[in-house]
Give the backbone structure.
Amino acid sequence: MHDEWWRGAAIYELYVQSFADASKDGIGDLAGVRQRLPYLADLGVDAIWFTPWYPSPMADAGYDVADFRDIAPRFGTLAEADTLIEEAHQLNIKIIIDIVPNHCSDQHVWFQAALAAAPGSAERARFWFRPGKGPDGNEPPNHWQSIFGGPAWRQVPDGEWYLHLFAPEQPDFNWANPEVRREFEDILRFWFDRGVDGIRIDSAALLTKDPELPEITEGAPDPHSDRDDVHEIYRGWRKIADEYGNKVLIGEIWLPDAARLARYTRPDELHTVFNFPYLNCPWDAAALKKVIDDAPTPATWVLSNHDVDRHVSRYGRADTSFDLQARDHSQPVDLVLGTRRARAAALLTMALPDAVYIYQGDELGLWEVEDIPDELRQDPIWKRTGGKDPGRDGCRVPLPWSGVEPPFGFTDGGRPWLPQPKEWRDLTVEHESGDPESMLELYRAALRIRRELLGTGPMTWLPSPDGVLAVAREHLRCVVNLSAAPVELPDGTILLASGPLGADATLPPDTAVWVH
Ligand code: NOJ
């Protein structure tokens, strides 16, 4: 096994509840994943990142963790996770899990103990409990807002308030407390000892807070995000990862400032961070070029994940950029255009150096489901914003595997926990397999060629007309036409094209080629 396997890896984000259901309850599970491991090996991925698989009341789809050392009964058992890790390793697939250190579920034993204990107790000191403001303490300690909407504080019966940067069911840990630090270091070891190869760190910039809990004022340092003291935590985690060797720490950090983001990947901290500026970027050659040039190193390339509108839909809108804080499902979507661009984007992404992330369903060309009936929506964002923000359910709809109607082989008993569009009959694994024009075969071919020809070596830009991106790697050139007119095809043997080429040896708009 070579060192730093993660550097050039293709990493598949597996959203457990929507991948495959073997227990017939309409919710994906580990048994479903085990049955489909050969599919992932055949797709050509090097690693799977599992979104949280722990016991959870699911107030935030599993990001409200009740026990960091177990598996949710709805997904399986710890023994089954061990087997899965082993089976994946036999197929040369690494396993990355999701650790959520900023908060836990309100059902976690520590939080339950904190609720049962008195103000000022050691149990409460693991969280951010504070007396309220106002004459009778019935106003929150400050005006911080929850990222999911509404105030970031909830009052408990004895009058104290606790901080939750996300849903009220997700109390924030107090990372100034050494007990919290020790607990998470122990959790890392627990999973590394079970053979897990990497950790995706949820909300990684938010962990430490200014203990004075000051109001947020423009110009002053942010008291609850990207504070300098958060880095010390990751230095400690890196030491643990290094003790085991060959493990990867990946930070989920949404920071617009490239220099601040780069601080997390200093040599003694995290190995990589997700490159969200690439995901947010509009389908525009100049903007993409800049984002690619500014990418954190080692680079990661992310087009979609379980928190954002699927890129087939994003690229089919008039505004092709994405803003996590301003999801907009009111724009019309041209799915044909979006799919054409998503195919070209896949070739661009997979031609870039270092690691690439594939969110489950990207390889099938799934789009954002924007018409989920309100009564079936699950995302706390939708609920907490009173529907103003449509939330993230539309990118979490269960995968279509086979057959011509829902549930498309996702489950053979239950009703999928979110409804699948009937049009997905043309996007099932079964339907796309063997069709050279399908998204699935494009991904399979691109991942195979990428593995054979592309490593982690550098890229250079080749001269190209306005609106065209031309990337050179050691054995391959990738040319993407983002302009509105056809351009000349590059010389060389064409290895792969994202769509039909012009009869006159031209590269049509929104099309990419790989040339040897
Ligand atoms: C980021 C995760 O990706 C998202 O799904 C979750 O809601 C928040 N962190 C809170 O854990």
Observations:
- The first strand starts at residue 10 and ends at 14.
- The longest helix spans residues 335-351.
